[in-house]
Amino acid sequence: xxxxxxxxxxxxxxxxxxxxxxxxxxxxxxxxxxxxxxxxxxxxxxxxxxxxxxxxxxxxxxxxxxxxxxxxxxxxxxxxxxxxxxxxxxxxxxxxxxxxxxxxxxxxxxxxxxxxxxxxxxxxxxxxxxxxxxxxxxxxxxxxxxxxxxxxxxxxxxxxxxxxxxxxxxxxxxxxxxxxxxxxxxxxxxxxxxxxxxxxxxxxxxxxxxxxxxxxxxxxxxxxxxxxxxxxxxxxxxxxxxxxxxxxxxxxxxxxxxxxxxxxxxxxxxxxxxxxxxxxxxxxxxxxxxxxxxxxxxxxxxxxxxxxxxxxxx
Length: 314
Prior knowledge:
Elements: H1 4-22, H2 27-53, H3 61-76, H4 82-104, H5 110-129, H6 131-134, E1 140-141, E2 147-149, E3 152-153, H7 157-180, H8 182-192, H9 194-199, H10 204-230, E4 232-233, H11 240-253, H12 259-278, H13 282-296, H14 301-313
Antiparallel strand pairs: 1-4, 2-3
């Protein structure tokens, strides 16, 4: 990966933090950046499956929404500190990932895609029907933002944006470290040739299973922070359309790069809230962008304009 790209992103976020705390950046843009960062974390967790392991999933939003619901239910019972809520969402989504992974990873290719989509429907249907616990189609509204403890609140947009920025950067570094580790290299080998990796003595299924659980954990934490930012957790967070959005963001940015899908997700969010406020046909514009990317940058924008440029320079 181009080493300058993460540095440029961090410098941009640092400038945005200064703008948020100084009041130079309007609250609308602070909220937009917060939403973009949380979506980026969700998409990066999906990229661990798609880009590193070759598992195209249409059920990843199940972990995103499940993490949100887990933390929201704990919040209604008096838990207000952000760290126990993050741990609970990570644990809940991780356990769900264990269950779903044990079933979905019995298949591969298009069959895995179909099974993951079918499994993704289960939490969505449960959230709608179990109204006494989940609030049904209305979800769980009125969530109050958690605190850091020691009297440090995250009520203001600037404070929440700061916490989200630091947390997403830490998670991004952790995901990148996983990708560069021997485990991550094994995942890339499995993506390219599972039979060859099996012949070399690697447990292909176990590697996929562990990756599936790790991706579920990060998605759950992203869902928890998103729910408390918007003040609402609903079945939409569990929907297949949310999973499809994540998959399209990975393709748009460039699978297997982490930063590329994150930028792709942020781009979609910005288009949604800016162009969408001016015209109801913003989806058409987004569709045109996808078509252009598939035609002229099939490996993603990040690979086409950043990594490819680095190779030419070298």
